[in-house]
Write a structure and sequence with these properties.
The longest helix is centred in the middle third of the chain and has 15 residues. The protein has about 80 residues and is mainly alpha-helical. The two termini are about 20 Å apart. α1 crosses α3 and α2 crosses α3. A two-stranded antiparallel ribbon has the order 1-2.
């Protein structure tokens, strides 16, 4: 997936599922593909959107803003 709307959709799905693996399952992708798409999105934007730990995902301030904006644009 090389388009920005696609990256936004993946990001929104990750946030709503609170899991890279669950988002991947729902989107019929592999978890590594989802992870790479989020990493590419963060690199392109030049900000960290999601703080990752072994047990949970937390949105950064920028991630919260990007999530809200993405939902508006995709809706």
């Amino acid at each position: 997936m090389d388009n920005r709307a696609g990256e936004m959709m993946v990001f929104v799905r990750v946030v709503e599922a609170a899991s890279f693996s669950e988002a991947a399952r729902l989107m019929l992708m592999t978890p590594s593909t989802v992870s790479k798409l989020i990493a590419r999105l963060e690199t392109r934007l030049g900000v960290r959107l999601i703080e990752r730990s072994t047990r949970r995902l937390t949105l950064t301030r920028e991630g919260e803003f990007y999530y809200e904006r993405s939902r508006e644009l995709l809706g």
